[in-house]
# Entry
Amino acid sequence: MNQALQAVDFKALDSKIKEHSEFVDLLTMGMNKSIVGQKHLVESLLIGLLADGHVLLEGVPGLAKTLAIKTLGKLIDAKYNRIQFTPDLLPADVIGTMIYSQKTEEFSIKKGPVFANLVLADEINRAPAKVQSALLEAMQERQVTIGEETFKLPSPFLVLATQNPIEQEGTYPLPEAQLDRFMLKVHITYPKPKEEMEIIKQNIQMEEVKISPILKPEDIIKARKVVQEVYVDEKIERYIVEIVHATRFPKEMKLAHLQEMISFGGSPRASINLALAARTYAFLMKRGYVIPEDVRAIAHDVLRHRIGLSYEAEANNVTSEDIISEIINAVEVP
# Structure
């Protein structure tokens, strides 16, 4: 028997995870007070929060993307800032700038809205590349440089960006380097008719839903440490590597017909994020170990923005979703 496996007391680990994940139900209930349906959206935000990864939300306007992020900020009593990305936005409007004071005859630093726990980059693809790149250091290094000084961002720090997939006029597509910084890219779909009726009822009553904080940012940092204890077996790690490897060299997985459809596959960051997200998903499911179903459940969100489609794929209306589904069905489950 594997020595690492022998060292893990699954019963004790499971009960510890169950005990420490009770707040997940409270957060979900709190989110459901103002968000009707959208279970996948709520789950994705919690994965991003607990796995310390940024989330890109894609969906048509009016699907409660902004409301969900705002509600999450209130529930964890975190500092929340919203930046509306527009074509005339400057990097200084995001990270801050140096201001000259005539009184003191010195420069002082004015911090921008990026200094918050939750930063909503609304319609991120509306601003030019110069502004989008201002977020890169913040997202990767969790710090911001203004002038010659570098400032640490508060912890937890999470960028939640939104973009509209339909309207492409006057937008600037996100560069691959920045897309790769997002742990998840989540597609938000329309609510079901029953859920939409509930949304109408909620909104015509004109009663504001009161959201009270149930956690503090420090609690999230503690919870992250517990998430790190969720056991990931070597077989699961190999499974993750095989899935990501198949996005680069599909021929090796007997998927030769996909070779012409893919211009580039997932980077090692894809493998890391797939493992982190699967572990966090297992935690949300109140389980002390990762199973293949956890990997499959979040594979599309982790990989859809990390696969480059060739002209051949676009000509044949093949999407990254189709490619991921084929790969997941082809790779042998441990």
The two ends are 16 Å apart (CA to CA). The longest strand covers residues 96-101. The chain is about 45% helix and 15% strand. Residues 230-334 form a domain with the Helicase, Ruva Protein; domain 3 fold (CATH 1.10.8.80).
